[in-house]
Records
---
Amino acid sequence: MTPQALSAYLDNLVRERIMFSTMIWGPPGIGKSSIVAQTAQAHGIGMIDLRLSQLAPTDLRGLPVADNGIARWAAPEFLPREGAGILFLDELNLAAPVMQGMAQQLILDRRVGSYVVPEGWFIWAAGNRKEDRAAVFDMPAPLANRFVHLFVEPDFESFKRYALEAGINEQILAFLAFRPEMLHKPDPVQPAWPSPRSWMMANRLHTARLDIAPVVGNAAAAEFAAYLRLYRRLPDIDQILQGKGDKVPFPTEPSVRYAVVIGMALRAADADQAYEGFRWLAEKASTEWIHLYAIDVFQTIRSRGKEQQARFLGFTRDDAKLKKFLDSYAATFPNIHARQA
């Protein structure tokens, strides 16, 4: 499944209070841990990120304490005692078999030693696969059989949705839209290689005008540098968004088109500018480019607040061409279409 589908699945588990232990499998760097954290935040519940590979058995089970001649286990302070949340066992299969065996009691019985997991806490885990070149141990069959297993793969559309909300630099997003295969490309030789996680790190470095090769590798950084040279050929995006682009032609080079469309979607400061970008594309570009712009600019406008979203919806009602376009893509934009009705 895609990261976006994983997010929806986990959201439903919490919403329906399905307390099955859940294991999330996928390559490193695609955002498994972030999605779990976002799910907890969205539902207003706690989250404890526990790395079993960094613990000894006594760290989880606790230390024996004498009590009237009887040894009782003093549970560690990092385990939850009350409330609701997600107990997240990240990198579970990096843990040695003895620790996975200890986790088996926690996952199966929701307890270890004398400690009992509170009723409101979900137990989820995540791990990499052997084919990801991760130093993982085999998961014991009895432990594996206790989980709901979810398999997630990198996906550009899911990354783009997250990146738009995070305010990623338009040049990085335009590059990945043009070369989506560069989103996740492990390199068995180099320590730095492209992944959704490393591109978000690259975003910080690029914004600070630093070389991004240390996080995405030399090959990806060289391609990105070549792509940046295309920006010298971009039309004036700000002029278009101000409604002064009637004489500005739509570029012919596909890579430049991606840069213009994504640049307009990210730079639209309000509903008026978003609409001007839509109007310009409707006059200059074919349907697929309008569609690409629409997906991104709707998300941008949502982030600008309800007032701007309502104003943009007003434009969709008043502009016959825009309304016709939205009607033809009602399945893609269900929220916008519903508000128009």
---
Amino acid sequence: MTTNVPPGWTDLFTAEARKSYFQTLMHFVDEEYQIQTCYPPKQQIWRAFEQCTLDQTRVVIIGQDPYHGPGQANGMSFSVAEGIAHPPSLVNIFKEIQQDLNVIPYPSGDLNRWSNQGVLLLNATLTVRAQQAGSHQKKGWETFTDAVIKHINEQRNSIVFMLWGGYAKRKGRIIDRKKHHVLESGHPSPLSANRGYWFGNKHFSKANGYLDNPIDWR
């Protein structure tokens, strides 16, 4: 797969593209998209980086896999394509925003409006087979996204990292917590949220309390 380097991420992508794991990963992704139905659409794999450059990044939200249903994934964690019904995790995210900030989120599930304000919506694994959650895990994506987190950790200051659920918390171990602001809670999925690990975390108001210019989380 040809990697068109998103503007603002040249150093990271250039360094990783030289490594054998990344070359093997791109070959795997090419083959999977040729013989399987995979998400997101191939042209949107790097969308999170295209919509939010390193210099623009102020908040990082770490997800796990892309959504694996038809038309859902659009290259940004927790975001869905325009006009697609909101998956349960996104429903719970919007409920928490409404409770936390006393605002009504916009109806669209496409979170590009957050990315444009400096929110990097980063999945740990950037591709997946249709209807097969986790099918592209342990193929190299986790190594790449660890490198992304490390790069942001080293190159930027005072970034707000939102780590939702055990998987994201493990990914966040490399973050320098003296340098950045880390918010942790349960995952917004119904399994976690209904057990009391999500609602009431107030991550959105807390993030805005750290930032010089608040994010419009609607």
